[in-house]
Amino acid sequence: MISQRITAILKDSLENPNDFSRTTPWSTDLLTYAIGMWLTESIVLNVTTRRTMAQYGLKDTVSFSSWDSGVLRITAGFLEEAEMNDANWNPLSALL
After folding, report:
1. Does 75 or 95 have the greater pLDDT score?
2. What's the whole-model pTM score?
3. Which burial class, exposed, middle or buried, applies to 12 when counting CB atoms under 10 A from its CB (0-12, 13-18, 19+)?
4. What's the confidence (pLDDT) of residue 8?
5. Do 50 and 62 meet the contact criterion of CB atoms below 8 Å apart?
6. By residue range, what is the domain housing residue 11?
7. Are residues 4 and 22 in the same domain?
8. CA angle 46, 41, 37 (to 5 degrees)
9. Is the pLDDT of residue 93 over 80?
10. Rg (CA), the chain
11. What local confidence, expressed as pLDDT, does residue 79 receive?
């Protein structure tokens, strides 16, 4: 399940910080806060396709978020399998 995998990644990031996190004192507090939000469902992740985002005028956007009544709502656009082989998406693929 994706939500369990995200929980594992967040916890692993806290237990095994990267170089940036080790040198940035506030990063542990931020990650701890984010884990708490995730576990209490105060972060909601919506997944859509990049094609759908482009149809709504967000062709240069890979994600966006909003804060609503204590809940962080994140929408992320991912390439569909057919799009991954489309040369038009190569510049975006490099960023992802």
Report:
1. 75
2. 0.70
3. exposed
4. 93
5. yes
6. 1-40
7. yes
8. 105
9. no
10. 16
11. 72
pLDDT, position 54: 86
Give the chain's length.
Answer: 96
The whole-number average pLDDT for the span 20-49 is 92
Report phi then psi at 11, rounded to 5: -65, -40
Among the listed residues 43, 81, 82, 86, the one whose alpha carbon sits nearest the alpha carbon of residue 63: 43
| 31: its two tokens | 């990650």
Whether 28 and 64 map to the same domain: the answer is no
Please state, in angstroms and rounded to a whole number, the distance separating the CA atoms of residues 79 and 69: 30
And the tokens for 39? Answer: 């576990």
The better pLDDT of the pair 72, 52 is held by 72
Beta bridge partners of 75: 46, 64
Residue 64 parent element (H or E): strand 63-68
Contact between 53 and 80 (Cβ < 8 Å): no
34 with 46, same domain: the answer is no
Which DSSP category does 77 fall into?
E
